[in-house]
Amino acid sequence: MTLVDSNILLDVITIGQRWAAWSEHQLERAALNGPLMINDVIYAEVSARYGTFETLDALLEENGILLTPMPRAALFLAGKTFIRYRRAGGLRTGVLPDFFIGAHAAVERIPLLTRDTHRYRTYFPTVILIAPDKNEA
């Protein structure tokens, strides 16, 4: 099972993105290792590109991507980790979704397919990240 970050899905569904081919290839590879999944936060981030939830749901179903709720332990960990981030001087806006996503992967002990690694590596060091290497970035 692999948790798929919104940036990967947006790469694939937004034509002409620099990372589209890489992201599509990584999705295919991850699918060979088990189900692909997203959580409610990722769903909400990707939904901005769609007029109806039915359209987004159809896309997810066609691609075998499961919508999985976050466990309470992940929600709790996200809040505690966000507090640690803020106390270290981190910005208040635009980052909380990353903490939900990282905590979900950490609690479930599943890899995270993403291109945005900095916060995940810093605050969720046990999460296996599937990300571009430095030469690709």
TrEMBL record:
GO molecular function: DNA binding
Record keywords, A-Z: DNA-binding, Hydrolase, Magnesium, Metal-binding, Nuclease, Toxin-antitoxin system
Domain PIN: 3-123
Cofactor names: Mg(2+)
Any matching Pfam family: PIN
Gene3D superfamilies for this protein: 5'-nuclease (3.40.50.1010)
PANTHER family documented for this protein: RIBONUCLEASE VAPC2
Family in the record: Belongs to the PINc/VapC protein family.
Name the record gives this protein: DNA-binding protein
